[in-house]
Amino acid sequence: MLAQLQSFAVVALMAVASYGLGSALLRGLRVSVPSRLDRLVFGMTLGWIAAGTILAALGLVGPLHVPLIGPLAGLLYVPLIGVLTLTGAFWTIGTFLASQDSGPVDMASTLHDGVGASQSSGLAAPRWLLAFAAFAAVVASLGALMGAAAPTTAGDALCYHLELPKTFLAEHRLVFDPYSENATFPLLTEMWFLWGMALDGPVAASLIHWFVGLLFAGATVVLATPIVGRSWGWIAGCVALLVPGVTNQMTAPMNDLGLALTTTVALAAWWRAVMLEEGRRWLIVAGIAAGGALAIKYLALLFALAMAAGSLWAARSKGPKRQLVLEAAAVITVVAVSTAGLWYVRAAWHRGNPVYPFLTEVFSPDTPVYADAHETLPESKSRLGRTPWGAVAAAWHVTMHPERVGGRSHQPGVFFLAFLPGLLLARRLRGLGTLLVIGAAYWVVWYLLRQNVRFLLPLIPIGAVAVVWVLAEMGRFPVKARWAGMGLACGILAVYMLVAAERCRGQWAVAAGLESRDLYLARSEPTWEAASVSNASFGADAHLLSLDHRAYYFNCPVTREKAFRRHTGYHLAVASPDQLAPLLRKAGFTHLLLAKNLNWQGVQFDPTLPRLIDESRVVQGRHSFRVLWDYTFDDADGGRRHYQLVLVD
Amino acid sequence: MIAPIRETEPPVEEGTHASREVRRLVASLFLDEDREVDSAPSSVSHWKAWLLVGWAAAITLVYLASMLDLI
Questions:
Q1: Which chain A residues touch B55 with a CB distance below 8 Å?
Q2: Are the beta carbons of A152 and A206 closer than 8 angstroms?
Q3: Contact B60/A492, CB-based, under 8 Å?
Q4: Long-range contacts of A537-540 (CB under 8 A, 24+ apart)
Q5: Chain B nearest-CA residue for A428
Q6: What pTM was estimated for this model as a whole?
Q7: How confident is the model over B15-61, as pLDDT tens digits?
């Protein structure tokens, strides 16, 4: 229980500190943000981006690398982060209390203000609908919180979202591992996780992503308010949060919600600068948020293309607006590149390719690759084809068969396909056309380049704004049709809520502190048993070559066999079976983690290394590659995994 | 002398009411958006409203069947 409370307290402190940092940035930029919700969303997002960038800078070229304190770096790193966090949090609280003393605050502003009813649809949502959507969103958030408060077992999180920050913390700097394909990705979200892990552990990282999900919903409200009004904006935020893929992402430390948050905030700031003409300083805010998006995931480049399309649309009429749009594009580009540039320079420095492992055909065509060469546009990312009609039909496939493009757990749900056609019946709404152009452009580049439902999250807020306008227009429907439509919409949201609450049923005991984290992991995480044995027997002294990419729970360095094979072609260098062990020892490996799926459900493992070991045993006898631990694990994906911890001797 | 008012023939309406509605809908997609919503909202006709509700209900049913692996 105490461990759980500590994780919650740490994330709360981080949130307060980041808000203080972001608020200071907003004040420094002299951006006027009258609404408290807007201030919270813009302030916190900018704060998280700034804090992550500062941590990255510390890890790259910060004072911890001054030779004078080099030996002390390990001792100082974590306390320094803790002191900075506490200082930031207390300073923020002090500033907040001081502002309370200086004058009365209009509490009503949070719920009812916004950019002005004259600039939005000016329609108020029915109170009962607002209450229902809020109730559903709160229940879904609490359901997701149960998942986030449990130790994570998400594959990608254990592969690199948590594994890389753990390595950086252990090494006290942003080390480069040539055999980790993710090591040179933009890693801003991972810096947030590093922050949480430095002060607490992996559960804090999960809670951070859950909190980012809440901010994402808030950002949707901020984006929607100038277009559909505050009350419908709140409903848009609830709709965005209730999307099954969103509540699922909130349970694990990933980076997709961080990307969706930053793209939404960038779009909302751009909207204020260009569409509402509230001042050019908003362009800096948009640039920082766009830089944050680029520092989180390469996918932000696709969103930049969509924003370019939206800018062209907004600039189609001659006059001062066109000049403002062009100015906005230039300012946002410069600020965004300055914010995110370090990650791309780092990738170019280590890999010779700023967007590794993409565009390897262009940037590093001569680098030898011995297996599973990276493709920029692989077939696996174009399961829906690449035809004009396919782009339209993709909406159906994404809704009905998300398992074909990334999995049901990340799906956008049915709400959008069910209600967006209603735009054909709705009246034209100022600004909505531009938003839809941006959304349509993103949809097209997503369809052409990266068909995975997970990558549709930046589109959710745009879809949510459009869909609540359809709901608002249902007020003009005949009474029976209106109630039928509203009832259906509420029914879908209720199902989303139940799915989010039910999804984490198995985690409530550990989330509440009634079950220990170790016991939970023993029954939930396939690699936990191997990691426990490895940690107890070898600690951090071993070096594991693993068929499974889940590396986080091992204390020793873990290299993924697939990446090692891809870059070294070791399997081709084994001319005779007796050469395998010396070759692996020479590469520094002391142990192997072999994995095999005993049925056809779930992930399948490459058979190359097990085959080489079998051949070696045939020649050298059963004593070679001694099995130290052997077990099977029934995974939640239906797979029955067989693991062997093997000694390289 | 005041010229007599010349009677004109009423304009000939082309196509059915439904086809004119469809043309109006398509045309509205390409009209300038830079204006507020209509000041005097007109109600949506029964068939259009029920068409959307029917579509949404049908899509939702298919979706649920798909998620429950019934189809």
A1: 418, 421
A2: yes
A3: yes
A4: A537/A628, A538/A590, A538/A591
A5: B37
A6: 0.88
A7: 676 677 666 655 554 444 444 444 445 588 999 999 999 999 999 99
